[in-house]
């Protein structure tokens, strides 16, 4: 396991241990079996994004806080943000706006439909 992952796991461990509820409730909230917390914190099986997101919801913090705190140097040296690549956040299940067809493609589709309708009329 690389040092970055170890740092993230230590942060998750600290967050888990600072929560005031009982361990079984934490395991349920994170979506792991009872008695599996220590295994996950040791990296076997691997920590998953869904575990981080569930833990963040339980603690009422942003999931991104885990990555920001575990990888502090990476945030300040990154020349761009993800939004620069993919645009801003979209609501869940948002559909992309259909792009208009090129005029030549639109006309070709109309021709094909006319041809097919004409065949049915015969």
Protein model, in words:
With 122 residues, the chain is mainly α. It has helices at residues 3-18, 23-30, 37-41, 49-59, 64-70, 72-77, 82-86, 103-121. The chain is elongated and about 75 Å long. The protein starts with a helix and ends with a helix. The relative contact order is 0.09. The mean pLDDT is 85.
Give a brief rundown of this model.
The protein is mainly α. The protein is 63% helix and 0% strand.
Label this structure with key terms.
63% helix; 122 residues; 0% strand; elongated; mainly alpha
SSE blueprint:
Elements (H helix, E strand, L loop, with lengths): L2 H16 L4 H8 L6 H5 L7 H11 L4 H7 L1 H6 L4 H5 L16 H19 L1
Helix pairs in contact: 1-5
Can you write the helix and strand succession as a string?
HHHHHHHH
Protein structure class: mainly alpha
Anisotropy-based shape: elongated
Number of helices: 8
On the 0-100 scale, what is the average pLDDT? 85
Distance between the termini: 71 Å
| Biggest sheet character | none
Radius of gyration: 25 Å
Helix content: 55-70%
- Strands, total number: 0
Low-confidence stretches: none
């Amino acid at each position: 396991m690389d040092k970055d992952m170890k740092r993230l796991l230590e942060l998750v461990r600290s967050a888990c241990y600072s929560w005031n509820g009982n361990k079984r409730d934490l395991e349920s909230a994170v979506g792991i079996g009872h008695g599996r917390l220590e295994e996950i914190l040791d990296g076997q099986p691997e920590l998953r994004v869904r575990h981080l997101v569930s833990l963040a919801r339980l603690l009422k913090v942003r999931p991104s806080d885990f990555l920001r705190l575990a990888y502090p140097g990476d945030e300040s040296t990154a020349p761009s943000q993800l939004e620069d690549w993919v645009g801003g956040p979209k609501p869940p299940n948002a559909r992309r706006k259909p792009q208009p067809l090129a005029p030549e493609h639109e006309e070709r589709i109309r021709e094909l439909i006319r041809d097919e309708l004409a065949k049915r009329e015969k």
